[in-house]
Design a protein that fits this description.
There is one protein chain. The protein has helices spanning 10-16, 20-23, 28-31, 39-50, 96-110, 120-137, 152-159, 161-177, 202-218, 225-230; strands at residues 55-62, 68-79, 85-94, 142-148, 184-189, 192-198. By secondary structure, the protein is α+β, with helices and mostly antiparallel strands. It has a 3-stranded antiparallel β-sheet with strand order 1-2-3, sandwiched between helices. Strands 4-6-5 form a 3-stranded antiparallel β-sheet, with helices on both faces. β5 and β6 form a beta hairpin. The model has no long low-confidence stretch (mean pLDDT 90).
Amino acid sequence: TDARIQWANPAFEALTGYSPAEALGRKPSDLVKSGLQDRAFYQSMWDTIEAGQSWRGEVINRCKDGNLYHEDLSIAPVKNAAGTITHFIGIKRDVTERKRMEAELRQLATTDFLTGIPNRRHFIGRAENEMARLQRFGQLRVSLLMLDLDYFKRINDSFGHAIGDAVLKHVTQLIRQGLRKTDTLGRLGGEEFAVLLVGADLRAAGAYANRLRRRITETPLRFAPEIVDAL
């Protein structure tokens, strides 16, 4: 009940890097606490198990070598014949790989694979959220820019889709250069992009669009001679 480890199995060492002998008599917080969960998180956990109830949750902890890992942790109180809690049993399961795969799936679901910016679905979701916020607070302004690359089909037809993809990436980076953290850039499909400018009125949005048009005009995409020769 004082949170000191009295026993650990070999799997604890495989997960944390600390041998059972190293862990004996020490607190888990002294060994693996990452600091990524706040005090309220641990207080809620202790309130639950000290009340005689089991607790389960996901925790990000730190191995002996400093690497972080995700664990699924279950803690159950152990009572004596009189019903008094004497110990707690914690069962840990490494879910780091599962969390990595979940993050990858979220990335695939929301990100355009070529340019790395929000895809159509994710961009529209962000736009809907901003519109809902606009309707709620009224005084906020949001401008939407729709961008389309003229004659892009000629690039694909003349030089191939690999060069076309390089152009799309190039334009994406040019658009990003002038955006603030509050703005959102998305690829709607093909050579069509959209930009959500939070807090910008039509005049400001128009000025940004003109700056962007000039930047794209004045920043050609150049290829090494050997690539040009191979076209």
